[in-house]
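Lab notebook page, bench 4
Experiment: in silico fold of construct C2
Operator: M.H.
Input chain length: 206 residues
Purpose: comparison with the prior construct
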Amino acid sequence: MKHLPSPLLVITDRHQARDSIEAIAEAIGRERGRWLLLRDKDLEPQQRRRLAARLAEIASRHGMHFSVSRDIDLAAACGASVHLQSAAAVVIARRRLGPEALIGVSAHGFDDVAAAAAAGADYATLSPIFLTASKPGYGPALGVAAIGPAAKLGISIIALGGVTADRVRPCLDAGAGGVAAMGEIMRSDQPGRIVDEFLRCAKPQR
C-alpha cells in the first residue's frame, strides 16, 4: 500500500472559495498542507490547464503533492497524480502515469472500494461519511461505521463528506488513512488556520 502524502487531502472548488484558488493553495502550503486536488471539473479545458499549471508550481514550491481530478492527460502534463471517478479508468491511468503514480478513485460504498482495490488504485475517497453543506441532498450519509470494512480491502480510505476538524479523529480511529475537505476550507476567510486545525486533530493521541 502506497504511503499517502498527508492525512489531509484538500479539494478545490472555486464556487465556494472566498479567494482565488491560487491564494488558497498558497495559504494551505504555508500551513503544512501537503496534498492538493484540483477539482473544478466545469472549467473550460484551456482554463483548467492554465489553473493546473499554476497550482502545480505552487505545490512544488511548498512541497505539496498535487493531484488532478479525472483528466489523465492533464495529470501527465503537470507531473501530477490523478483522481478518477471510476475504477474502470485505473488501468489506463496506470499505463499513462507509471507504477509510482498515486491513483485514487471516488467511492460511495463498499462495492466501489472493492472495485477500486481490484483495479489497482492506491486509495479511494469514501463519501459521504457525513451530510455535507457542499452537496446538500447528497447521501444518505454512510457514517464512520462504513470506514472499517472498506479499509480491510487493502486500499487506503480517505473519508470525505461533511468532515470537520472535530470529526477527523473519529474517522482515523475507524480505519481511514486520511480525510478530505473541500467546503470547510474553501469557504473560510482563513483557510490556513482550518488546515492547521485539521492537521493537529490528525496527530496520534497520546
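Observations: The first helix runs from residue 21 to 30. The first strand starts at residue 8 and ends at 11.
Next step: discuss at group meeting.
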